[in-house]
């Protein structure tokens, strides 16, 4: 395998005269639409600049040439508008957030040391045509980096195109496949078919396929128009005769001008490496840290050996496809042998369901190297039973061939969202195969960049590989036309599925080298990767639900809602739809004249929870009852009714823990969501009573006590809070005594509790005042008193905001980065929210990391203790277990010991445990 080229070093060895012409517009718009909005430290939009830099840099790493230039468009008006004044008239202005990026992208091109070419009055395509002609006439060859169909007319001996997305060359054969004619007839096909994108009129009713047939039959456009009267089809004959002049005008519009006065001589297009200091300065100025790392420029311009984008791969292995379809045992064994030699393999599954516990295995994708991947169909339907060659393998036979590879400790299996695939492969229906050892690119990305962007495979591919994978909808269709993946034709299924394994393996090569230098290796290896197996086991275990009790709760909630509805109608003075915010707003603010109402953007009164709570605080009875009714309605629909529908055949519900959603590292659960059941309300407790232990078992709940406040005392190093926790005092009562003085009653403790948690969440005077029912001025006085009593907390908050602004992230007490979006925003509201997030992130993130540390240790501790308890749920700071009755006490003590011992802080960790026949009793 040869090393990828470094953009920082000149090409050595013989290089023929080869000119690469990059279609700059294609790169710009592809980057802009592929990446989410982002700004540089000055607040200027730069998502297109960032994408452009990555695409250009990666291209330079993969390809060598003697000459190279990026060609740009200038103004929209060109000589073609004189031919046809409506040319491109239907094009809208570029998005306003893209406009300031055009000049920055030109600066980026200069920073990379690549010549850029543009000329007023002419399109980039005309300049590409001109330079291609001049260079070939001078004895060289040309590669045009673009997938633009307009440029395909330039393909000929010495001139080829390269699709920048698929990394596939486009020659005469590919042009013939697309247009049905040779490249020299492409413009004539376009003249007949027209182009609505550029407002090229063409001939109505004539498409590309028909145009190609007519041109092949008549030999050319003028011969066709001259002989149009001989065409037998009346409608076709009529439109060609009527619109002959439009076709001629269209030909002038689409034919590229290869004789434009060149704005720069060919000698100025010589390829040269960039000046490291200039390139690193540009990238650093715009905050492109990952790009600096990728090209080895972290040291302020002193280049190291640039890390290959996809590891050490040969340039001809970098294309995405074509991929192999494996249909025989012999071919599959060859893949297994290749993977065994490689010691690493990308792995992905195709199934018929997003529910891993119910999904049937349709096929398996394997990648043994970047660009070298295959698809193994197993349960596709509609295949030809009379085919002389097998269309797919027997699933059982295939699994038995793969089983040794999947268990081979010397071969690392790389997956994306490994929990799903491992669950699918581990089920008996799919062969019950164990896969180990594994790597998970989703969790690698999450360990590096939580809060910075999403971690789905497609997004990461676009961001790190500048490649947009084939969408699922493209393979299966959409809406009513969607077909199951098992019905997708094998060629399409292979292109889609094998690409996923290929992308996954490439992401591994790109992302994992960052783990150690960015201090994320321990987070990934010791926590996130180990959590995959822990959560897989928890999801499979599920938790038993008492359907009879759930039905009883639903009936009781329904009765309560009906009673509240009657009371509400009496208070309102008339019946109305309680589920209609519009009708409620009219009653509260128009009919009853309550003050403090605010209108939404649509002009309707706002009746969200905050608005109703404010009215309730003023002493109005109606909003109090509405809030109570809404709580019952939400609990009934979200939990009671939904839970009943999600009870599986084993009498249990199996939630899906999402591992890479939150910015702080906390897990989230879906299908059903078990993390938002109210803890301290009677209604919430009723629902928890429906979660029960299996016969002969008990539920054991272990809950970290005030963990975020303990982290606050640890990080801010507040002596009085440390003392209170060390002495196991009630922290809220202690805070009340310190802030308010005098005896501490229930109200003082409540206010102190609100303040303690409000500070962690960065709450200001307005928010605290609303929570306490006091003025913002009074709340400001309380906050000032709080910080005067605990100055270390204010210092810590200021430090966190400063850290976020300087680096774009804050760290948990254990060193994990949490990226803070919007911290450099010029918009005060966005920046304020980001500052509050920066203050809260270390506490939430630290709490998440502590409980995850416990979760990865507890299964082994249980096994070593000879206990058969199973961990079922993680809900915020609580773990829930199911243990045989005789082991409940031992399980509770083990959970307490492990959970309190996973971290050493300046204050002790405390875990409260309980047992019971149902979750409410155990909590």
Automatic annotation (TrEMBL):
A single GO BP term for this record reads: double-strand break repair
Q: Which reaction does it catalyse?
A: DNA(n) + a 2'-deoxyribonucleoside 5'-triphosphate = DNA(n+1) + diphosphate
Top EC class per UniProt? transferase
Q: Which residues form the 3'-5' exonuclease domain?
A: 323-516
InterPro entries for the chain = 3'-5'_exonuclease_dom (IPR002562), 5-3_exonucl_a-hlix_arch_N (IPR020046), 5-3_exonuclease (IPR002421), 5-3_exonuclease_C_sf (IPR036279), DNA-dir_DNA_pol_A_CS (IPR019760), DNA-dir_DNA_pol_A_palm_dom (IPR001098), DNA/RNA_pol_sf (IPR043502), DNA_polI_H3TH (IPR020045)
- Matches recorded under Pfam families: 5_3_exonuc, 5_3_exonuc_N, DNA_pol_A, DNA_pol_A_exo1
- The entry's keywords: DNA damage, DNA repair, DNA replication, DNA-binding, DNA-directed DNA polymerase, Exonuclease, Hydrolase, Nuclease, Nucleotidyltransferase, Transferase
Q: Which GO terms describe its molecular function?
A: 3'-5' exonuclease activity; 5'-3' exonuclease activity; DNA binding; DNA-directed DNA polymerase activity
Q: Which PROSITE patterns match?
A: DNA_POLYMERASE_A
Q: Which domain of life is it from?
A: Bacteria
EC numbers for this chain: 2.7.7.7
Q: Where is the 5'-3' exonuclease domain?
A: 17-272
Query: Does Nucleotidyltransferase count among this protein's keywords?
Result: yes
Q: Give every DNA-directed DNA polymerase family A palm domain span.
A: 684-887
Which family does this protein fall into?
Belongs to the DNA polymerase type-A family.
Mind telling me which PANTHER family this protein's record contains? DNA POLYMERASE I (PTHR10133), DNA POLYMERASE NU (PTHR10133:SF27)
Share what the entry says about its subunit structure, partners included.
Single-chain monomer with multiple functions.
Q: What is the annotated role of this protein in its UniProt record?
A: In addition to polymerase activity, this DNA polymerase exhibits 3'-5' and 5'-3' exonuclease activity.
- Its protein name is DNA polymerase I
Q: Which organism does this sequence originate in?
A: Humitalea rosea
Q: What is the lineage of its organism?
A: Bacteria, Pseudomonadati, Pseudomonadota, Alphaproteobacteria, Acetobacterales
